[in-house]
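User: I'll paste a sequence; please echo it back and then give the predicted structure.

Assistant: Echoing your sequence first, then the prediction.
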Amino acid sequence: MNRKIIRCLIAVMFAILWSAPSGNCDAPSQASVMSQSIVDMDCAVCHDKQVKSMTNSEMNASVHAKKGIEKCTICHDPAALKESHANVKPGETRFVKARRYPQAFCLKCHGTYADLAKRTANSKVLTDPKGHVVNPHDVPKTPDHAKLAECSICHKEHKNKPEIMKYCQGCHHTGEFLACNKCHASAAGKNVSFP
């Protein structure tokens, strides 16, 4: 019987400690978050790095900001924000996993993928050491390249712009844009010709 009482006391103490605010954040209280419109909130209170990315030229978000897309709620749906912030408590330092938006979301503003390929036809961002250039939005159609259709693979809005060539070198480890079977005999099924 004494063990049950001790376990209950420990459980109650744990619950009290777990739910107590740490007091290290100036975040608005849950009640104020719920009563205030998400559209009117100052996101920088808790998301300072993301808001600062709008003016940091090393980050893609700054490109959007320069074109007048300066409010977080233009890309981040207010209803989804309200839902994701519903259980946030004052002082909580829990992080929400970065959301990866599907290609369809980006294409609402950027046009079709074919439009993007036309706009980046002269891009030199993917140039291998031999001078072979690949349009980043018109890579050869292979099963390995299929995942590149998701914009978030290359475009990180609130993080430093990734070195795209390093990503490509995960497969093109020689640094050249060659089909796999040019070096690897076992890759005969991946016979893709590059212009």
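The two ends are 79 Å apart (CA to CA). The mean pLDDT is 75.
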